[in-house]
Design brief:
alpha/beta; LRR_At1g61320_AtMIF1; 22 strands; single chain; F-box-like_dom_sf
């Protein structure tokens, strides 16, 4: 019996609105009754890639006219009084100003609370910090009349930040592929007093980062792969709880925050030397105290090159540490650095990806053999014996360094309660079965903790 079709229309509309727009549209093939049911969804995702074809060579061929006709027809025939979300993704819409105007007006009339306008090109390289040559799309004046917006996503858009005073309810802003001056960012924060989340990705010509204000409600700040003319980052936001940064090494000044979690990735930095090790050390001192910390392969290699190769002074307050690592020899001193720096560590996550960048020139800071760091001359750190209770290893392939570290943890972690090893699903000459067989060797290790539970996935 088809119980779903007999549900009241408002409930069906709610269910369809929980599906991705493309999946909701597929329900039109179920039966005649469902042919137009999907059009009652309150979450619209107009994406030109849904209308693309591939030629005989596999190249994507866009069909802008078919896409434009579909969007205009959908808007013209839609009688729903309220919409929750509207997303328009359309590369280089320079000749389609009318379409953009209609979508913005439609969202305004339907009291859309979550709006996304993406005019970027899917072929752009997010690792190219100079920014694309393509001009940004100038948003029409009607955009600034949208006073009920709670979240806004703008990709490759040009806007007048002084008009953002109308967005009094805005809690979340995500900007990408935009030339962004520090003055623009400061004005945005000043004009959007309710802003709680700010994400800035792949923006360029940024003359530093200034996120300061005693009245800021900002709790989440994400800055990824941006081009800074002056890599100086000043953050003073009393409600900030989560900070994520990826890009080149810069100077951080963080003050007056209640930061709880930081995710740091400096993988776009091209140099590896002692001075950068000192810069990373100073930045980490500024960003902490935080109880959850994620660090990258680059930091594991470079931070021991600085003047303090053994650990942070004073020690960190981190209780959950995530290491994004290739488990390369060059990272082993960095792993030991953070074990020594986190005497209160309770949860350790080792996320292994061997494609992460390894420095071309590297010299061990202390001259020991890498394997000896975890075996004969291993230092047993305070967190290992007294506080570490949970370890998760992701992407395990059974390389010597992976086995050494796993052996070290099992052999010395006296209060460890749970070890989860998630083997890599990568198909290779050895493959998942081999990875699992190596991981299973952990059951034969001498265990320092009587209460240790081991799970191999």
């Amino acid at each position: 019996m088809d119980r779903l079709s007999n549900l009241p229309h408002p409930l069906l509309s709610h269910i369809l609105s929980s599906l991705p727009f493309k999946e909701a549209a597929k329900t039109s093939s179920l039966s005649k009754q469902w042919r137009n049911q999907w059009k009652s969804t309150r979450n619209l995702d107009f994406n030109h890639l849904y209308f693309a074809n591939r030629d005989s060579n596999g190249d994507v061929k866009l069909q802008p006219q078919i896409f434009t006709d579909f969007v205009q027809q959908f808007i013209a025939n839609n009688k729903s009084p309220i919409m929750d979300k509207l997303s328009l993704t359309f590369s280089s819409p320079g000749d389609s100003q009318e379409l953009v105007e209609k979508c913005i007006t439609f969202s305004f009339e339907r009291n859309v609370k979550h709006l996304k306008l993406d005019f970027s090109d899917p072929t752009w390289d997010e690792n190219d910090l100079d920014g694309p040559a393509h001009p940004m799309f100038d948003l029409p004046l009607s955009f600034y009349n949208h006073q009920v917006l709670e979240s806004m996503t703008l990709f490759s858009c040009k806007f007048d930040v002084l008009r953002f005073k109308n967005f009094g309810l805005l809690k979340s802003i995500s900007l990408r592929w935009i030339e962004l001056k520090v003055s623009t960012l400061k004005a945005l924060l000043a004009n959007c007093g309710c802003l709680e989340s700010l994400s800035v990705k792949s923006c360029w010509n940024m003359d530093g980062l200034d996120v300061c204000g005693k009245d800021l409600k900002l709790s989440t700040l994400v800055v990824e792969k941006c081009h800074f003319l002056n890599p100086y980052f000043e953050i003073e936001a009393p409600n900030l709880k989560y900070l994520k940064y990826s890009g080149t090494v810069g100077v951080f000044f963080v003050n007056g925050t209640g930061l709880e979690e930081a995710d740091l990735d400096f993988g776009l930095e091209s140099e590896c030397d002692e001075s950068l090790g000192d810069s990373l050390y100073q930045s980490l001192n500024q960003i902490c105290p935080t109880t959850a910390l994620t660090v990258c392969t680059y930091m594991l290699q470079v931070i021991p090159m600085g003047e303090e190769p053994l650990g942070m002074v004073p020690r960190l307050n981190v209780t959950h540490l995530t290491l994004r690592t290739a488990m390369h020899n060059y990272e082993q001193y960095g792993i030991r650095f953070f074990f020594n720096s986190c005497p209160r560590l309770e949860t350790l996550t080792i996320d292994i990806d061997r494609s992460r960048r390894i420095c071309d020139e590297y010299e061990p800071p202390l001259g020991d053999k890498f394997e000896c760091l975890w075996t004969r001359s291993a230092i047993i750190f305070k967190c290992i014996t007294q506080t570490l209770r949970k370890v998760e290893i992701k992407g395990f392939k059974g390389t010597p360094n992976e086995v050494y570290v796993m052996f070290y943890l099992v052999n010395h972690a006296r209060v460890l309660e749970k070890l989860t090893v998630i083997t890599s699903s990568e198909e290779s000459n050895r493959g998942p079965e081999f990875f699992r067989s190596v991981a299973d060797q952990v059951h034969g290790f001498r265990k320092a903790s009587e209460n240790l539970s081991i799970t191999i996935v």
